[in-house]
Amino acid sequence: MEVISVTADAETFTCNAYLVLGERTVLVDAGTMPGVEAVVAEHTDDLDAVVVTHQHSDHVGELDAVVERFDPDVYAYADHPLRTHELGDGDRVEMGDESFEVVYTPGHADDHVSLVSGRSLFSGDVFVYNDGAFDDGSFGRTDIPGQSRERLISSLHTLLDRLPSTVEALYAGHGDPFENEAGGDTVRDALERAIERAERREPKYPED
């Protein structure tokens, strides 16, 4: 399975939108980069589906353009005018050449889901490897009204409990993708650090 960040060259703020190539071609999130649908078209003529981790604007800003270009199925937890399939905790979604379990992970957003296979984790914003706060295991911000650090901590524990020991690649909504290092850091290690840091209950960005 090949995973391509189609927003890697964005000049405006966006999430990471990932094109997953394989037997079933799927875009995880659409981002806010103008022209993202054209970048997707550089890699495939057909897009089977878009899976939305959550509906913050930086994740769905270009969803209309992607749907207009490719007419894919659209999977999301919460209602959306373009949604064709509702996601629920424990559902399975085929992406690329892997089968992913949907894990409901609220806290950063009420409709947040993560996607876990035997090898890969698409974590949206609930868990990232590096950002402006931490470089090797961080968690989604919860300082906006409607967000909850307590719910996010619970979601991180749920994600850890349901993370197969074989997972070796992390594709987060922000920051860099990460793969297990031979004899070194692993996705599970980074997730455990994210939990420990979130449980300090200190501001993620103290200067804000």
From TrEMBL:
Its cofactor is Zn(2+). Pfam families: Lactamase_B. It is an enzyme of class 3 (hydrolase). InterPro entries: MBL_Glyoxalase_II, Metallo-B-lactamas, RibonucZ/Hydroxyglut_hydro. GO terms for molecular function: hydrolase activity; metal ion binding. Its EC number is 3.-.-.-. Keywords: Hydrolase, Metal-binding, Zinc. SMART domains: Lactamase_B. This is MBL fold metallo-hydrolase. It comes from Haloferax chudinovii.
